[in-house]
Amino acid sequence: MTALASHAAAPTGARSRLRRLADSERFLAWALLAPAVVFIVALVGFPFVLALLYSVTNVTVGTQSASFVGLAKFRQAMESPAFWGAVRNTFLFTLVSQALVIVLAGTLARLLMMEFRGKWFVRLLILLPWVAPISLGSIGWLWIFDSIYSVINWTLRHIGIFGPETWPIWLGQPTLAMASIITVHVWRMLPLAAIIMLAGFSGIPKDIHDAAAIDGAGFWRRELQIILPLVLPIVLVAVLFGIVFTATDMIVIFIITRGGPFDSTQVLASLAYYTGIDGGDLAEGAAISLFLFPLLVAIAYLMLRLARRTEVT
Amino acid sequence: MATVETRKISKFYTHEQAAVDGIDLFIPEGEFIVFLGPSGCGKTTLLRMIAGLEHPTAGDVLIDDRVVTALAPRDRNIAMVFQSYALYPHMSVFDNIAFPLRARQFAKAEIPGKVRWAAEMFGIARFLERKPRELSGGERQRVALARALVREPQVFLLDEPLSNLDAKLRTSARDELQQFQRRIGTTTIYVTHDQVEAMGLGDRVVVLSQGKVRQVGKPLEVYDEPADTFVAGFLGSPPMNLIDRGSAILGFRPEHFLPIEARETGNDAVRFTFRVTRVEYLGADRLVYGMLEGGAGEAKVLSRLPSTVPLPVQLGERHEFVIGRRDLKFFDRQTGLRTAPIPL
Amino acid sequence: MSEQKTRGVTRRTFVKAATAAGLAAGLGPFVIPRRAQAAKTLKILQWNHFVPGYDKWFNNTYIKEWGEKNDTQVIVDNVGLVTLNSRAAAEVSAQKGHDLFMFLWPPPVYEDQVIDHAEIYQECQRRYGKPIDLAVRSTYNPKTRKYYGFSDSYVPDPVNYRKDLWDDVGMAPDTWDDIREGGRKIKQKHKIPVGIGLSAEIDTGMAMRAIMYSHGSSVQDAEGNLVLNSPQTRECLKFVKALFEETMTPEVLAWDASSNNRMILAGKGSLVLNAISVTREAENKKMPIADQIWLAKAAKGPVRRIGLEHVMDVYTIWKFAANIEGAKKFLVDYIGNFRQGFLNSEFYNFPCFPSRVPDIKQLLAKDSKAKPANKYAVLTDVLDWATNVGYPGYANAAIDEVFSTWVLNTMFAKAATGATSPEEALSEAEAACKRIWAKWKEKKMI
Fold this sequence. Notes:
heterotrimer, B: alpha+beta, Rossmann fold, CATH 2.40.50.140, 2 domains, five-stranded antiparallel β-sheet, C: alpha/beta, D-Maltodextrin-Binding Protein, domain 2, 19 helices, 46% helix, globular
């Protein structure tokens, strides 16, 4: 007892200092944030600054020294039709897949809110694409779309939807190829969006649903006039994430189509890789990859503002 | 306006535990009825089944003699006010109040007039353009009431609508609510755990516990003539003294337990020796804590004395206290139900 | 390219890579640096060879023996082919990495970062005789007079065809016109198409250049001037369009580098252009179709018979390498022992110093696995019909970017499918080439 008391009365110097530090909110905040800050600076900030620097020089993969060339690399990139094709494809890819993601994620989130047996298992399955490495999933899709062994074609033929002469080449025709990469991307983005929207839907108090039911709102009125406006801020966040992820993604395209057939699925991110790394012109690759940056910043700003404005208590 | 009836209505969430256990009720047209009980007694579940928000496991709900058990809430012509008010946060007050009208396809031209009428009824006409978050708690509550009123439903269902208000506001809101109900005369079911609200508002009170109705009656009936020990112990603040007296339980209200000097004694009074242990001053009243002595052993009881009555006793001293014979209630030890008086 | 490129993407590699990554991430902090047993260390990075036996021999036998003799610990890191470019870029940017870095194509863009490999060529020439012209043209920059790499071997790119089907229509794929006509007949009769890629991948790049060179068309002339816009190129575009329409299906537009292997091994193709990996895989897996897939020399065009190498081994030594002398010696010794390399690659890698496999003709004429045993004999005169990317000039930085950004693949695919007219496809490609030329001229690399 005496030992305990003396201990409590006079803690050792180092320990008390530590305890004082742990109690200091300012110190603690910084200590806890530091790993994240280091992570972001090292893996996001540094490469971004590097890309900015590269884009205004004539650096190649084979040179360490480079001279300042201003915006020449941007001009160079913009002179090529392949670049404008990639801009168009990026927009198409992003907008269509995001539209699908939002509609499907909304539906999925609603389904997940229902109570049914084995719900945890379904939730797990739905989360799987997000958790699994994207390259693994994409390789799976590569086989699904394979020109010889396509699982889709095989199945549709065996259940009699395709005749013996029908055998679409999913990755060989520009429209189908675009549809294919959009499919893969939707598959990939859906879990995150669904979970975000699930959070949004769960955040609507039960009373509001009840009130709408009592007030006589039918399905569409409830969806469009009550639920949609209430989840809008969070949906906007999901869309924003989706747009940024989609517009800057190259893994799906790199693995599935490599931009083909004939550049019809080439997006800015993949074009930047082919130009910068495989083609060796790091500077132009950097310029291409930065092209969307101002636009994405603008979109992010607008969406966050909108989300704030529609925020409700 | 309509009657509301439940027939053997039950709700089981699990197999063992009934939230509502076979309740029969009849609520006549225009009545203001209060469901009162501690939390978890099934009062809200009962209300939600009447609203159609929950489906009963067994039994039926009738509105105006028509079985509505299978109907959706919107087909029952009822309105409901929630504890949280459940205002649509993204809509203006006007749109909130207009929402039920629009949902019911009222003619566009009619809507502004009706909204204004409902808003004026609750004195919130000047807030019509505001969003709910710009209003105070009391104002929000009025918006919720206006939204319920605007389409003139057959029945009002109110689920603890005052519990989010502060105490002062609650008193005036209670008053307004009752006046309003008297004026429009719509059948109203009001759910609360607050006995003051129940006493003050209800034409009749339904006391519930563990999914069952313990007593139905006018507020004073329920207070003065509790049907069982639960009602006796639940109503009143502090509640009825309940003491063990052999085969029966004896009950009396603290305000009826007075020093012998404060009451004219006669044949109708019963005397007790009371040892005072503590006195609590509550302003208008005093609560006197102590032990009842003699007879069948000691028992803890209290007395509630108005400050106008002198207390002729010091702490630790014994004194004679009396109770009017008709103020003594007797309950069966086994069932807890009221029984006939037994000789003391 | 055959299986090797597949490996970049197949499950096997993927699982391997994923496991490795997982292990690296998980065990990273606990990995104890290898104890240097020898006085020196030599670090080599090269691809996962398509012929697994080669890696087994190289990693487990050859480098150990060489290391003992030279008191050096040799460490080999094998990576997937598709990651070579990004690995190289990473090493350069870190100015740190392997002593020997093997590309599978000429890497002229790294010229500033590597030593002049002339000395290695000179030493090998002194010991083993002259290197083949293909090797020099794939590693030498005439503008700067620098050898930016050293090529030990190359891989022939013959025609692989289904002997049974071609016999059935009474033809053999000797010329491009034969391929078009026979391919059409087989497709009509058996519903089995030709499989020459029209996609953004290396095999397509090689096949399209084979068509161009044999028709007298090319991207540059011998002096390195841009000459893509020519009547011959227009001829080629028309030819490829006809070839696509008459003998193929749109599947070739979707291909990766291994699709043609899969196609012909699955019995779904009548002819592909590929390394002998196709027949080797069939033989090693004892597939019944193995005996029906025969090889032919690169097809003859209106101008001449010519094709490409399938891949080109190019070893480079970074200026910043830690053990430059060891790396040089390793290469010279490796050429000396190349006959083992040839045998262990199952004839996949052909020597750049022919004197090192003097009996190549006899070996090719009598193979232990092939039926008939002389199936590979058509490769005997491969040097008469195989050339480098950049023919008739050198493989330079501009040629490399044109190749790696798939400019010609896109041009042919667009014209073949009718997405644009041949004329438009050509002018777009020419504009792209002009931009690329201007860029590298400005850098004084061409």
